[in-house]
Amino acid sequence: MTTMSNSDRRQRPGSKESHRCSWGPYISAITNRTTNLFIRGGMLFSVGVFLALVLNLLQVQRNVTLFPPDVISSIFSSAWWVPPCCGTASAVIGLLYPCIDSRLGEPHKFKREWSSVMRCVAVFVGINHASAKVDFANNVQLSLTLAALSIGLWWTFDRSRSGFGLGVSISLLATLATQLLVYNGVFQYTSPDFLYIRSWLPCIFFAGVITMGNIGRQLALYEHSFLQQKTHQD
Amino acid sequence: MTLREQLRKKISAAFYRHGLLCASYPVPIILFTSASILTCCYPLLRLPLPGTGPVEFTTGVRDYNVPFHEPQGDLGERPDWYHGPPVAYIQQVLVKAAVSPWDSSLVPVDVFRSPLGKVFSLLEEIRNHVHTDSSGIRSLEALCLQVTGLFPGLRRMQSVLPEHGCLLVSPGNYWQNQRELFDSDPDLLRTIQKHEPKGLHTSATLRDLLFGVPGKFTGVSHYNRKRVVTYTITVVLSHYDASFLNSLRNRLKQLHPSANCSLRDDHMVHVHFKEEIGIAELIPLVTTYIILFAYIYFSTRKIDMVKSKWGLALAAVVTVLSSLLMSVGLCTLFGLTPTLNGGEIFPYLVVVIGLENVLVLTKSVVSTPVDLEVKLRIAQGLSNESWSIMKNMATELCIILIGYFTLVPAIQEFCLFAVVGLVSDFFLQMFFFTTVLSIDIRRMELADLNRRLPAEAGLLPQKPVPLRTREVPPPPRPSPHTITLQTPAFRNLRLPKRLRVVYFLARTRLAQRIIMVGTVIWIGILVYTDPAGIRTYLAAQVSEQSPLGDHGGGVLPPHLPVAPVFRGGDPTSTLSIHPAPDPTTLPENQSQGHLGPARAGRLPHAPPAGPQITWGADDEEGWRRLSFRHWPSLFSYYNITLAKKYISILPVIPVTIHLNPQEAIDMRHPQDTRHPPPSIPKVSADFQTDLTLYKVAALGLAAGVLLVLLLFCLYRVLCPRNYGQNGVAHGRRRRGDLPCDDYGYSPPVSEISPLLLRGHSMDIECLASDGMLLASCCLAGQIRVWDAQTGDCLTVIPKPGWGHVKLLLLLLLLLLLSLLLSHVLLDECYPLRRRSAPSRPPLFTNQPDLTPLIDTNFASLPPSNVSTPPRVGFDFGGLVERAYTEHEPPSTYPSPSSRSPSLGDSTGPSTQDSAVGTQGSGDVSSVWALELRGNLIAAGRSSGKLELWDAVEGSLRCSNEDSVSGITALAFLSNRIVAARLNGSLDFFNVEINKPLGLLHRGAPCRGSVPPSPCYSSEDVINCQLTRSVQCAHHKPITVLRAAAGRVVTGSQDHTVRVYRLEDSCCLFTLQGHSGGITAIYIDQTMVLASGGQDGAICLWDVLTGSRVSHVYGHRGDVTSLVCTNSCVISSGLDDLICIWDRSTGIKLYSIQQEVGCGASLGVISESLLVTGGQGCVSFWDLNFGDLLQTVYLSPSGDGQGVRQLLVLDNAAIVCDFGSELSLVYVPSVLEKLD
C-alpha cells in the first residue's frame, strides 16, 4: 500500500488559488516578481500535497474493507515524506513549464483558460481513479490503456512539443528514482509486475507532469497579464 | 484539401439553416426537445432508487440449494445478485425466558438475572451438539464460520467478541461465556452498559450485536414490566447442512418446548448488501465533485454579453445533465444496465462531454454584429463555429472509440455511455441550447428597446398605474406626502420584470418548498422500501397493538398486514386467543393496562399470575427490527465485508424457558437485593431509550442554531453594509467595474464604435443641431458643421470656399491619414495644449505659445493646401504674426460666472479672445452662443456681434453689430432670433429673406418643440434686423434663454425668470421665487416651464398664469440642467446627482449618482429613456423603473474623459462633447430593431 501511494502525485488547481487569482487587489499588493514566484510555488506545492493525499487514499481504499480502522491515519499511513516530495516535485514542474516556454520563445497559447485546466485536473483524477478501480485483465493492458489515456490528456490539453518532451523525461526520471528507492529498500512493492515496475507508474507520472505544467502555465499567465497591466498603468 | 473545403462549406451551410430554423420557431423546438428528453429518460423509471439499503430475497428452506456461481439463464424473479454461496448463514436461536409465576418477593433484578443465566447452558448445548447420520458425524465446529482475529482497530472489543474459532455471539459473551464470571458479577446492567459507546451512534451497538434483538426489546432492565427477557444466540455458519440444523432445532425444541409457538420455519431470507460508501471513498469522490463544480464555474463564468447570464449557465448545465440522463436512459432501453457506480463516474462523464461547445456557441453568437436580426445572428454564429464543433466532436468520438477497444469491461461501458451522451449532448446543443440562446438574445434586445418605440410611447404612462393599483392602493394625489416616505415605495413598485419574478420566488419560497417536498418524498420512499425501515416497524406496531383493538372491538382488524401470515400459521391458536383470555385473566395484568404483555399470539394456557411468554409474527423475523447495518458491522469486526455480497438468514429456533421463582432466588447475587427498587415505577422502559432521541434532537437543534449564527456572521463580514441603499451602488466607477443598479445587477456592456468628430483644436464650447446638421464651436472660435447622419465635416467656419463634393472626397482621403497620424500627434500634443492654456501669459513674454495654432488634425489642414495651390505647406509666418497681434489687446469682459460649464473655467475671457479668430475673418471675439436652424447658423459673439452663417457653404450671410455687449444666449425660432446679452438686455431680431422660395419642410420635427425649419437657398439675400431691444430685461447678466411655443423665457442672475411673447417681444410675467441666480430653464411646446437656480431649487411654473406650480429643493449647489417629460422632471446639479421628480406631485422618485464633472450631461431620448454621460461612456436608464439598461463605452481604449455636454438629436443619435472631440453615437441600433 505504501509503495502504491508513492506513485500518485501532483496537480489540481483547487478552486482555492483560482479564487486568489481572481482577487486582483490582493495580488496587486505584491509588486515583487520574486514574491510572486514564491506564491506560485507555494500554491503548486499545496496542490501537489493535496492531490498526493487524495490520490493516495484512492489507491489505499482498493484493499480496505467496509470499515477502515482509521481513515485519517490511513491517509498518512505512507511514509510521511511522500506528500512533501510530491508537493515539491509539482512546484518545480509547475514553475519549470512556463520558464521553458519563455526560454523557447514559444508561448503556450492552446486553451489557456481555467475551465480547461479544471478539466485537465478532472481527467487526471479520472485516470488515477480508473487505475485504482477498474480491474484489468493483465498489467500490459493496464499500462497500454493508461499510456493511451495519458497521451490523450496531452493531446487534449497541451499539444506542445516542449510539454511532451518534458513530461516524458520527467516521468522516466521519476520512475527511475522510485526504482532506486525500491532497490535501496526504502520501499517495497506489494507485488511487482511487468518488468518489475508498477506498470502504470510512468503513465501516471506523465499525466501528472502534464497536469501540473498546465496549472503552472495558467498561474504564470495570470502573473504575466498582471504585470503587463501594471506597467500599462504606470 | 478541396474535399475538406467542400465539406466545411456544406457543414457551415447546414448549420446556418439550422440556426435560422431554431431562431424562427423557438417554442415548438423547445417543446420537441423536452418531449424527446422525457422520452429518453422514461426507462430510468425502472432503475432502482439510489440508496444503500439492503435488498432481500426469500426462498423456501426445504428445497434450498446453494446457488450456482454462474447465473443460469432466466430464473424467474431471482435477483441477479443471487448466485454463488452466501458469505455466511445466520442461525439465530431466539430465547424468551421468564420467571413464572411472578412472586412479590422477587426483586427487579430477578427479572433478567436467572433468564440470562440460562444462556450458558444453552450455549453448551449448541456447542456440543453433534449430529450423526449416514454421511458421518458433524459438529458445529465443522460447519461454523471460523474467524481468525478481530480487526486490528478493535482492541476494546477483544474481551467481548470471540477472537478465534466459531463466530457465535450471545449475551454470554459479556462474561466470556463463563458461568462463574456471570455468577460473581454484582451488577449485570453495569457490565452491559460498560461496553456501550459513549457518544451518539447510529449503527449497531455491541449490545444489539450480542443480544441479537434491539435493546428495548430485550427486557434486560429494572423497569421491565413484562418480565420477559428476550435474547438470541447467533450462530454464523459457513456451510449449510440441513440435517445438522434440523437436529439442532429438534434438540432445542425438545429441551425447551415452546408449545404455543407458531413461528414458521420454512423460509430463509437472503439479504444482499450494497456497496457502502466509506469516508475513505468519500474523500476522493468529494474531490472530484469539487473539481467538477470548479470546472462548471470557470466555464459558465465565460458566458457574457447576454441578457441573463445565470439563465444561460443554467441552460448549459441542463443541457449536459439531460444529455447524461438521456444516455443512461437510452442504454437501459437497449438492455444495457449500468453496473458502474453512477455517482463515481458521473463527474468524469460531465467532464468528457464538457460545456465547451455551449460556450463556444454563445461566444460566437454574441460576437456577431448587433444590428443584424436575431435569426441571422444565431445562424451566423452557428455556422461560424460549425467546423470547429464538428471537428471536436469527431475527435472526441475517436478517442472514445479507442477507449472502447481497450476491451476492459468497465472502460467499455464508460465509453458506451460517453458516446451516447456525446451524441445526445450534440443534439441538445443544437436544438435546446441554440433555441434558448436565441430567446435570450431576443429578450436582451427587446428589453433595451421596447420602450423606445413611438407606438408604445402612448402606453407607457399607464404602465405604472396598474402596477400601483395592483400592489398598493394608489396614493391619493393631492394629499401631501413626504419625499422620504414616498421614495422607497415607488422604488419597490417600479421593479423590472426580472426582479419581480425573483421576488415572487423569494416571497413564496417556491424553489425551497419544492426541494423540501421532493426531499421528503424521496426520504419517505427510501424509508418505506428500506427493509429495516418504517414498513416493518409499522407492522410490528400494529401487531403489538392489536390486542388493544380487541378490547374495544373484539375483532382483529382485517387490514393488518400480519394477519394473514399469522392466521395461516396457526389458525386455531389465533382464533382461540382473542375472545377468551384478556378480559378474564389476571386482574394484576389488567391493572397494568397496555403496559402489560401485549403480544398478538398470547398463550391461552399461560400461568395466570406470572409473566407470559408469547410468540408473535414479529419474532419470526426478529432480525428485521435490527439496524440494517447490524450484519455488516458484525462481519466488519472480523475484516469481512458484506458489500455487494449477501448472507442467508435461516429461520429462528424459538426457545422458551420458564423458571420458577425459587430458581431465580437461588441465582441471586448477594448485592442484588440491595439494589433499590425502581424509584419511578410508572416510567416505561421505552422512555429511557427515548431520552437518547431527545438528546439527539436537542443537539441537532443546537448545531443548527450555531450554523445559522455562523452563516449570519459570515454574511455580515462579507457583505457591504450599504448593500441595497439607494443611489450609492454606482458611484465612482472605473472602467472595468461596471455600474450596476441598486440590486447589484450589472447590465451588459457593449462596446460600439461611435463616430468621432475630430477637428477642433480646442475644447468645444457650444453645440447646436436641428437633426440634420450639427454645428459646434470651440474656444478658438472655429465653427464646424457636421452631417449628423454620417459624421462628415461639411464646413469649417470661417474657412469657406470648397464645394461639397470635393470636400467629401478630401475628407475620405484624409480621414485615413488623420487616423494614422492623429494618434501619434494628438497623444503628444494634447496634454501639452491642456497644460499650456493657463500658463500662457508668462510664456508670452518670451515667445508666443503656438500650440493652439498648430493644427494637428490634418482633416482641416489640406483644404488650405487645395484651395491655395501655390502656397505649399503651412503658413507659419502668418500665424505667428497673428498670434503676436492677437495677444496684445485682451478684451476684458466680465465673465458670467454662472456660465462656467460652457465658458470654460480654466480659460478666462482674455485667453479666449486671444485664441479666437486665428483664421479667416480676423474677428477677435469668441462665440458664446450658437443656434442652428435650417441651414443657417446663428452665432453670438462675445463682442456683441450676431452673425448668420450658411451652414453648407460656410459663408457669412449677414451680421449685426448693434450692441457691444456680449451675447450670452441665443434662441432661433422660425425666422426670429432672440439674443440675450451680458448687460441684461434682450434683443429680438427678425430674419428677412428676400427671396423666400426655398421654404421646404424637411425632416421630422424636433421632439415636438420646434416648428419645421426653413431652408434657405444660397442665392437668397438674408437680412437680419433688430426689431426690438428690451434694454433692461434683467439688471444682471442673462444666463439662460429658452424659447418654445411662442414664448421666450429668460433667466438671469437677478433671481428672476421672465417670460416674453415672441411676436411682440412683450414681457408677460416676471417670475420670482428663486433665491439664487437662475441656471437652468426648460420650456417645451406644451408650455411646461421649469427653472432651476443656484440655490438648488427647482420651480415649476404655469406659463399661462405665471403662477408657481411647485417648488422643490433637490440639489446641493446649482441646478445645471433640467428636462421634463410628460410624467417627470429630471434635474441635475453640481452635486453630480440626477434627480427624477414626479411632475404632477413634485415628489422625488429617485436619484442617480453621476460621476464627477458629468453631472450636467443628460438627455431624454424618449418618454422613458434617459441617457447620461460618464467617464468615457454613456449610460441608458429606464425612467419608469430607474434602472440601468445599458452602458456604452465610446472609445475602445477607455480613456476616461468625462462627457461634458450631451445633445440628443431627433434621429436617436447622441452627440457627446469630449473636450475637443465630438462623439456621435447612434443609440445602439438594437434600439430600433423590433422583433
Automatic annotation (TrEMBL), chain A:
GO terms for cellular component: SREBP-SCAP-Insig complex. It is a multi-pass membrane protein. Residues 7-20 have a biased composition (Basic and acidic residues). Pfam families: INSIG. It is found in: Endoplasmic reticulum membrane. The chain crosses the membrane at residues 37-58, 78-97, 140-157, 164-183, 195-215. Coiled coil: none annotated. Keywords: Cholesterol metabolism, Endoplasmic reticulum, Lipid metabolism, Lipid-binding, Membrane, Steroid metabolism, Sterol metabolism, Transmembrane, Transmembrane helix. GO terms for biological process: cellular response to insulin stimulus; cholesterol biosynthetic process; SREBP signaling pathway; SREBP-SCAP complex retention in endoplasmic reticulum. It comes from the Eukaryota. One of its GO terms (molecular function) is lipid binding. Its main location: endoplasmic reticulum. Belongs to the INSIG family. Mediates feedback control of cholesterol synthesis. PANTHER family: INSULIN-INDUCED GENE 1 (PTHR15301), INSULIN-INDUCED GENE 2 PROTEIN (PTHR15301:SF10). This is Insulin-induced gene protein. It comes from Nothobranchius furzeri (Turquoise killifish). The gene is insig2.
UniProtKB/TrEMBL annotation, chain B:
The keyword Endoplasmic reticulum applies. GO terms for cellular component: endoplasmic reticulum membrane; ER to Golgi transport vesicle membrane; Golgi membrane; SREBP-SCAP complex. Residues 571-608, 886-920 are annotated as: Disordered. It comes from the Eukaryota. GO terms for molecular function: sterol binding. WD repeats lie at residues 1071-1111. Gene3D superfamilies: YVTN repeat-like/Quinoprotein amine dehydrogenase. This is Sterol regulatory element-binding protein cleavage-activating protein. It comes from Nothobranchius furzeri (Turquoise killifish). The lineage of its organism: Eukaryota, Metazoa, Chordata, Craniata, Vertebrata.
